[in-house]
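Justification of resources, computational component.

The compute hours requested in this renewal are based largely on the per-chain cost of generating structure records like the one below. Each record pairs the submitted sequence with a full structure-token output. That output is archived, and it is also reused by downstream analysis tasks.
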Amino acid sequence: MPSLLPSITVVLLVAISTALYAQSSDANGLRIDGALTFDEPVVTVPATVEDEQATARFRFRNAGTQTVTIVGIEPMCGCTTAELEQRVFEPGQGGSLVVVFDFGHLTGPQRKRIVIATQIGSAMRVEQDIAIKCDIPGALTLAANGTLVWVVGKDSGAKTLRAHVTKPGFGTVVDLVPPDNKAFTVRLVREATEGAYTIEMTPTTLDVDKPTSGMSEVLIDVGEGRIRKQPIWGMIIPKESK
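The structure output for this chain reads:
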């Protein structure tokens, strides 16, 4: 009968390795423990309305007793990139990872995760997470968070959103993208006050039997050929059935 000892030994070694590097997570599920000890696993970067990107430097060190090799860096969003000067770190040695977050058309609170894969010694592989956080101000400030709601039986006709450029002199609304749902139409009205606008949205029908939504986008020219987009939403809530 074949001996079970080698198999048992392998299982025990895997179990011991897993226990030694059992990972805990923060409130958002970020795996904050791993082969490398980061000064700040989550870095918050302030942003202004004029910024196009944010850069964060994540400092870390190998606090263990074995050589750690970074074998992979995987941003979870195509809007982030990461640069590393070296990949092998002896016990006690430190380094840093630079993450660049390109905002694109994103606005509001953002949290982008990057997965760091490391190899400890010559065998064990461990993954841990870092994240860059940023609250991106939109070029346009919209009333009601840019959302209009119709309740069937209570509301009808057009509704309006007041809007103004977040920073005076920075940005001009040039157009509205037609809604992605033909249940709505939109119209832009330029106010007499510079940088102020009214956006009118009208449902083409209120005859719906389930919640119906549509999104349009406001196109804002912020200079040098750069166009930013901010969404506006319409939602129709059907009458409750008795």
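Residues 29-136 form a domain with the Immunoglobulin-like fold (CATH 2.60.40.10). Residues 4-20 have pLDDT under 50 and may be disordered.
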